[in-house]
């Protein structure tokens, strides 16, 4: 029997992208796929659907199915808190929708759903799957290291250890398969960070639910697919308890969908003009351009944009800068006029990172951005904002050594002098720069080997699909 996967996504770009790419691979393997997310996320994805490497017209893809909730983007309100509250408020409604989709005898003439794959932050999906007796897997959209951290936090007594040492933020934790990590570098939800406390309650609650609910994936009776690859986090993959069934299948690329939700008009105009930024990159020699972008959620404050502007002017290097939202503090007219810099409000990041002209990525180290940079061999300068990003940047700087962590001031702002120093380290001729660039090249090769035919992630995915086919 041909399997029919229902893919359910927490509707943010960083979950949509890898899940869409997983959908492509499942369809390629001959399965049926139904992809579901929120109405608003769908609106954001489609203005530039031509940019998506997604087989929407393939007979094995069912139309997208929407959950009847708003995610706060609908009314143009980008108050982060509002975007996240809907999960709690509309959960029962979503559960109902999911139940009727997942138990339908057929969907658009395709067979009934046989398997559910869902991303993190929506633990109610696994409750519904369990109720209906459907097998399921979680797609973990952060590094495996983070899975290990959360797992040990909820199951291994680390909660108490962190609580009793949180006054000493440099206190180092030793987790199986993970390099020693200081409390300050743990995901932001686990450490006291007053500026992020309003999100902490919601998110930590969702993680807790995932990791402690016996009926959900965190009960670990199912499979955890990870958007990472074995070589990158072999310590974690080899030390994590085999019964947890944690399987690397990444990097799940290309991810070229689009966030049209924040500034719909501008973004649609600019992203349709893909050529403008690709043509800009075409003008520069290999590894010469600085690419700055901070994902789909974070906005930089005025003071930070001013410091970026100064650093870009002083560095004298060409740059492509994605500025989302208001351009407050952005002062680079002089450079833009001279043609050495380009400001845009969105781009197809995987295309940009894989362009040979790009020599450095100044990033918030969101997991997709980090993995896309790794897969393209581009060294990073990390400026983490929240969630897993503070841990990811430590992995880049200290473990994979394919980039550096930028030091911010006590006010959380990265000064232009420090950014210039980082740029010189990463792009200059010094020993450290050479080492970083060599490592970036090495990781690119390993990433590509893992997904090519017969590579570790490729085989893992094939075996996963075969095992399901045997059991359904
Ligand atoms: N992205 C993009 N164009 C942009 C900015 C971001 O295509 O101008 C994509 C990027 O390639 C990545 C996703 O949006 O796949 C952002 O995910 P990430 O995990 O890096 O950060 P988050 O958005 O969750 O903060």
Automatic annotation (TrEMBL):
Keywords: Glycosyltransferase, Transferase. One of its GO terms (cellular component) is cytoplasm. Its EC number is 2.4.1.-. CDD domains: GT1_Gtf-like. The keyword Zinc-finger does not apply. It is an enzyme of class 2 (transferase). Belongs to the UDP-glycosyltransferase family. PANTHER family: GLUCOSYL/GLUCURONOSYL TRANSFERASES (PTHR11926), GLYCOSYLTRANSFERASE (PTHR11926:SF1534). It comes from the Eukaryota. GO terms for molecular function: quercetin 3-O-glucosyltransferase activity; quercetin 7-O-glucosyltransferase activity. The keyword Glycosyltransferase applies. SUPFAM superfamilies: UDP-Glycosyltransferase/glycogen phosphorylase (SSF53756). This is Glycosyltransferase. InterPro entries: UDP_glucos_trans, UDP_glycos_trans_CS.
